[in-house]
Design a protein that fits this description.
It is a single chain. The two termini are 23 Å apart. Helix 1 crosses helix 5. The chain has one domain. The longest helix has 13 residues. By secondary structure, it is mostly helical. 12% of the residues are buried. It is 66% helix and 0% strand. The chain contains 5 helices and no strands.
Length: 80
């Protein structure tokens, strides 16, 4: 069962699929990358999720960066 937060992120990635395809975005700082990874794994606590949401509102390109990573990690047949 997908964690609710990860499921939401995955649905967002799916909806942005055409928008993020072929684009390169600069990587967020290491600490934000770690928060994004924890979110994707369903391990990010509520206070840290709130912090991450504030960061993503200020830097939406970081969400596109995470979407690229998630898409790259999916099996090739899932990207078709």
């Amino acid at each position: 069962m997908l964690n609710t937060n990860f499921g939401s992120l995955f649905r967002l990635v799916e909806s942005l699929d055409k928008e993020v395809a072929g684009r390169q975005t600069s990587a967020p700082p290491i600490e934000i990358q770690a928060l994004l990874q924890e979110l994707a794994q369903g391990r990010l606590s509520l206070p840290r999720r709130k912090k991450l949401c504030k960061e993503l509102l200020a830097e939406p390109a970081w969400l596109a960066w995470q979407a690229e990573r998630i898409k790259a990690d999916r099996p090739p047949e899932a990207n078709e």
